[in-house]
Amino acid sequence: MRILVTGANGLVGKNIARALSSTPKFEVYATSLKKLQIDGATTFTSNLLNADINHMIDDIKPEILVHCAAISSPDACEVDRFAYHRMNVELTKRFVSACVDYNVHMVFLSTDFIFDGSKGDYTEQDTANPINYYGESKLEAENLILASSVGSTIVRTSLVYGIEPKLSRPNIITRVIDNLSKSKSYKVPTDQIRTPTYAPDLATAIVQICLNKTTGIYNVSGQQKISVADFAVQAAKSFALNHELLFPVNSNELAEAAPRPKDTSLVIDKAKSELGYQPTSIEMALEKIKQTLYS
Ligand SMILES: NC(=O)c1ccc[n+]([C@@H]2O[C@H](COP(=O)([O-])OP(=O)(O)OC[C@H]3O[C@@H](n4cnc5c(N)ncnc54)[C@H](OP(=O)(O)O)[C@@H]3O)[C@@H](O)[C@H]2O)c1
Q1: Are 145 and 154 in contact (CB under 8 A)?
Q2: Which of 37, 211, 249, 271 is the most buried (most CB within 10 A)?
Q3: Does the beta carbon of 11 sit less than 6 angstroms from any atom of ligand 1?
């Protein structure tokens, strides 16, 4: 089965493209803005904003599209609304149209930031109410997928972490390592509660979804609720870095462009029962990352 993965240089897309490529049933095409290399996949660069999406789908003829490409930095979205809308909403709309025309199943990567964070423990049925433009853009994209006739899976995930060479964007783990290993202090919010997601776990769930072309909305994250600050401290301790360089602060002391929802923890019961999803514990995931770091 042929699959096209977009955004395959990002932490999420790279793990997904790699996991799909190592599953014998799949023939993987992976694309990104900048040069990429994924063993077992056919890779190519494309600025999707300027690409002829119909031509791309007609040329590759995938059965499934896993659409990860996005502007996924909430602060970048907040300061450049035109760019975020073009990338996160209009591009998704063009992919939806092509997927309908060519009968391609669409797997869309969405986010816990569609929720306002006022209650936590969000299920797939909870009402979305984003408080920043990034969350708004992802919700708008979800809604246009659901309003179309495309066969689709919407996967909402949260604070994805892992390490990869040459990542396009840092994540909480790489930030902790970069700062603390240079003896630099790093401020971490105590009032942002997440269910952090180990990137390979998310990729395993996507493989499962692709194997069965499962439709619907799924929360796919870790299952431990933790503040970003506590998570950073746990990572620093696990990597034997000086955790005292981490400064626990309130979000309003971080002066970030985009407001952050407080508690966006996700309930993953549906993914566990329907996809057989079993997330790695934070402790075990950090241990695996440590082994990669020091191997
Ligand atoms: N990371 C998280 O914690 C998280 C949480 C919830 C949801 N998600 C969702 O998961 C998806 C992937 O997230 P991520 O963190 O892996 O994102 P990321 O690191 O920012 O990667 C985004 C990818 O999109 C590509 N891209 C950006 N602009 C492009 C363009 N004009 N044309 C073609 N490709 C373009 C980038 O290419 P280059 O790298 O080659 O420039 C990169 O491969 C996103 O949809 C995001 O909303 C992520």
Answers
A1: yes
A2: 271
A3: yes
Is 79 among the domain residues? Answer: yes
pLDDT at 105: 98
Nearest-CA residue for ligand 1 atom 20 is 72
Q: pTM for the full model?
A: 0.97
- In this structure, are residues 95 and 65 in contact, taking their beta carbons and an 8 Å threshold? yes
* Domain limits for position 24: 2-227+256-293
CATH number of domain containing 282 = 3.40.50.720
- Paired residues of 122 in beta bridges: 266
CA of 66 to the centre of ligand 1 (A): 12
If one counts the domains in the chain, the total is 1
Decide: 252 in ligand 1 pocket, CB within 6 A: no
The rounded distance, in Å, linking the Cα atoms of 163 and 171 is 8
219 falls within a domain: yes
Nearest CA-CA partner of 153 in 211, 112, 195: 211
pLDDT tens digits for range 203-239: 999 999 999 999 999 999 999 999 999 999 999 999 9
pLDDT digits (tens, 9 = 90+) for 29-85: 999 999 999 999 999 999 999 999 999 999 999 999 999 999 999 999 899 988 999
Q: How many CA atoms lie within 13 A of 86 on its CB side?
A: 9
